[in-house]
């Protein structure tokens, strides 16, 4: 079993600390969602782990080996980790096929079936054209295909769903789950919070320089009635059952475990009558935890 372990990672620029005492351990066969507002350290964390930037304190370990800031260790680290390409790094006069082949040859020569990757991502119709002719979504699928072709043990993917339509968001989400099963460690930074719930095993939230919360979807199973209702309407509907959580003024989460089927139906009907577009029953998800951590809550 492979493990990526980060111990006490701190990143500072002068007197400004971006990340402080970040620690976690991720086993293989795991997808981690990484969530934080813009400018609060997601990309910095990726760059630090892959040693694109210096770290002030901390250790980066894979299978117990500490990868230090030496040329030998950094080279060995880059053999095991790929970072999602920026679209600005694509060569306009190269075809998509040439890009995928390049990533395959750098990391995993002859091991990956390029044509199979292209078919999985429905790229047959354009992949041999020059990148200069690609739309934003086509470029994003190409960058994802390059990662799949590299086939490294650890994959860092920053905003991989940008520019993708709902059909391709679903496609990429499904392929991520398929790739995970082969024993990969995948960390995905994304603003599509509900989409993270479709494929991530855990969600890490960064806040105030630290790893503020680890949401494990496999363990947090308590059910709530969830809806978004205008704040004034919510206030008028009081009182709520004990343990009800209010988030960001309009999101309400009502514990459902002790409620009868009739009581659940009545509450959901009231929520709809008072302006909710939908009312669902399920565990608190990434969206609710995002509101709780970054917007605050009242219970």
TrEMBL record:
Keywords: ATP-binding, Nucleotide-binding, Transport. The keyword ATP-binding applies. PROSITE patterns: ABC_TRANSPORTER_1, ABC_TRANSPORTER_2. It comes from the Bacteria. The keyword Nucleotide-binding applies. InterPro entries: AAA+_ATPase, ABC_transporter-like_ATP-bd, ABC_transporter-like_CS, ABC_Transporter_VariousFunc, P-loop_NTPase. CDD domains: ABC_DR_subfamily_A. Residues 4-233 form the ABC transporter domain. GO terms for molecular function: ATP binding; ATP hydrolysis activity. This is ABC transporter domain-containing protein. It comes from Salinicoccus roseus.
